[in-house]
């Protein structure tokens, strides 16, 4: 293994702690009634999960990189 | 003789691993009940792959949603690898998966099982993830883990069997930034241990005793690989009801492949239609053990000539149109709420910086570099209920 790569066992808990450390009493700066545009279907991060998972298959097969393209959930059949 | 499929399948099962633990953007709500029937066709580089993908998702009670997917790849391959070192072949891969989402308060837990079968490759993946909504549902944090076990075989050797174990860890954050802007940040690590090379593929080495000036020998990969990827994506609502999305991913692994991937897409609704255009760019360095031409037989400890592990740049241009033929406005289709039909085409072009096209039969070392052009078609019907 290449030693220059981050050690996952250290990095992931640290990232989690960093994120959780922000769990103070934060006031939502976008109120629920202001989220109508975000709820519009054209703003869905993955409106067609079955299509997204297929095209990710294609890129996995044709390129050497993988991962880092999360948020494919919501019904792809594989989350 | 089969040449390309196992490596392709290995990568595809990695996709299953990735998808097994990625989270929903809005964890505090169960995914919508829907059914999709998709037909896909990949045509390029002498390879044709097509088949269906069927997905059904249904909520059970108030807090559980179950999902099933059946996917088929029917492969007919006369790729450049095949025509230069083997024989064209046909193959079929079947994959099915089952998943369950459990919503409790602002927490969503997911489990998923995926099984894939081919004549010379079996794969199983189990995934688990937890998503938590916080800060007034502005933020969704997802942790995921998946475990995959593959079995690699050879179609021409019944005694050949090798294992490949995979593990994946992921952390993702989906963040509402403004009333017009949503973003995601994902970090994923994948570790693999076992038989990582293709049992059929060969590498090329200089051989003065050969009429061509080169010969082939089996490739040999390291038996471990760890990769890290971080991706950021943002989607913005434009004032006239349209959406703009940008995405960037950085990738690095222990085989010295470093990649940058970026894309920009635009979505524009018009009456009952929705049109999307997207451009994607990817560039990567090659694996440290990749050579287009080795200096001699067994020249290095590890050897590979898989063009997907070579330095390359890819470009994709996508067009998609969706037509909603059924909507919520008082339809009389019984339990169906919405229905749409979609079609898309992706034009993929790949420039390989260090992978020669041996079909040219040029003098050794002066062969032209290979280029790939592929067209990817998708047609699918979706129903929400």
Describe the structure.
The complex is a heterodimer of chains A (79) and B (385). Chain A is mainly alpha-helical and 79 residues long. Chain A contains 2 helices and no strands. Chain A has a domain of 34 residues. The two termini of chain A are 29 Å apart. By secondary structure, chain B is mostly beta strands. Chain B is built from 2 helices and 18 strands. Chain B has a 16-stranded antiparallel β-barrel with strand order 1-2-3-4-5-6-7-8-9-12-13-14-15-16-17-18. In chain B, strands 10-11 form a two-stranded antiparallel ribbon.
What are its keywords?
heterodimer, A: mainly alpha, B: mainly beta, Porin, 16-stranded antiparallel barrel, two-stranded antiparallel ribbon, 18 strands, disordered N terminus
Break the fold down into its secondary structure elements and pairings.
The complex is a heterodimer of chains A (79) and B (385).
Chain A: H1 8-20, H2 49-62
Chain B: H1 5-21, E1 34-44, E2 47-60, E3 64-77, H2 80-85, E4 89-104, E5 107-118, E6 121-134, E7 139-154, E8 157-178, E9 181-194, E10 202-206, E11 214-218, E12 224-238, E13 242-253, E14 258-270, E15 273-284, E16 312-326, E17 338-356, E18 369-384
Antiparallel strand pairs in B: 1-2, 1-18, 2-3, 3-4, 4-5, 5-6, 6-7, 7-8, 8-9, 9-12, 10-11, 12-13, 13-14, 14-15, 15-16, 16-17, 17-18
């Amino acid at each position: 293994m290449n030693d220059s790569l981050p050690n996952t066992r250290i990095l992931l808990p640290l990232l989690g702690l960093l994120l959780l450390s922000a769990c103070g009493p934060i006031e939502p700066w976008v109120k629920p009634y202001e989220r109508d545009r975000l709820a519009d279907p054209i703003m869905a991060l993955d409106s067609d999960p079955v299509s997204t998972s297929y095209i990710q298959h294609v890129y996995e097969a044709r390129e050497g990189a993988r991962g880092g393209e999360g948020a494919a959930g919501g019904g792809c059949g594989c989350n | 003789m089969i040449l390309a499929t196992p490596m392709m399948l290995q990568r595809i099962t990695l996709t299953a691993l990735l998808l097994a633990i990625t989270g929903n953007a809005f964890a505090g709500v169960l995914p919508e009940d829907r059914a999709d029937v998709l037909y896909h066709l990949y045509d390029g580089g002498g390879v044709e792959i097509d088949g269906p993908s069927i997905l059904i998702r249904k909520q059970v009670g108030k807090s559980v949603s179950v999902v099933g997917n059946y996917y088929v790849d029917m492969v007919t391959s006369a790729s450049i690898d095949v025509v230069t070192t083997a024989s064209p072949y046909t193959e079929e891969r079947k994959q099915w998966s089952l998943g369950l989402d459990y919503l409790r308060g602002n927490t969503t837990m997911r489990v998923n099982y995926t099984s894939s079968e081919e004549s010379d490759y079996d794969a199983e993946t189990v995934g688990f993830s937890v998503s938590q909504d916080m800060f007034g549902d502005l933020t969704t944090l997802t942790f995921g883990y998946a475990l995959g076990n593959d079995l690699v075989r050879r179609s021409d050797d019944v005694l050949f069997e090798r294992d490949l174990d995979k593990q994946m860890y992921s952390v993702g954050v989906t963040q509402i930034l403004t009333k017009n802007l949503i973003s995601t940040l994902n970090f994923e690590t994948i570790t693999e241990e076992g038989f990582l090379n293709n049992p059929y593929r060969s590498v090329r080495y200089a051989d003065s005793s050969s009429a061509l000036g080169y010969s082939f020998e089996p490739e040999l990969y390291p038996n471990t690989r760890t990769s890290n990827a971080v991706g950021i994506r943002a989607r913005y609502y434009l004032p006239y009801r349209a959406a703009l999305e940008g995405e960037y991913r950085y990738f690095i692994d222990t085989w010295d492949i470093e990649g940058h991937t970026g894309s920009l897409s635009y979505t524009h609704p018009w009456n009952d239609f929705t049109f999307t255009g997207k451009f994607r760019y990817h560039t990567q360095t090659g694996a440290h053990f990749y050579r287009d031409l080795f200096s001699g037989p067994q020249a290095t400890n590890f050897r590979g000539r898989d063009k997907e592990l070579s330095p390359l740049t890819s470009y994709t241009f996508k067009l998609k149109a969706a037509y909603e033929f059924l909507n919520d406005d008082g339809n009389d289709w019984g339990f169906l709420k919405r229905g749409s039909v979609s079609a898309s085409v992706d034009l993929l072009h790949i420039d390989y910086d260090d992978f020669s096209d041996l079909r040219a039969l040029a003098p050794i070392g002066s062969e032209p570099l290979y280029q790939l052009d592929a067209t990817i078609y998708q047609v699918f019907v979706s129903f929400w209920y």
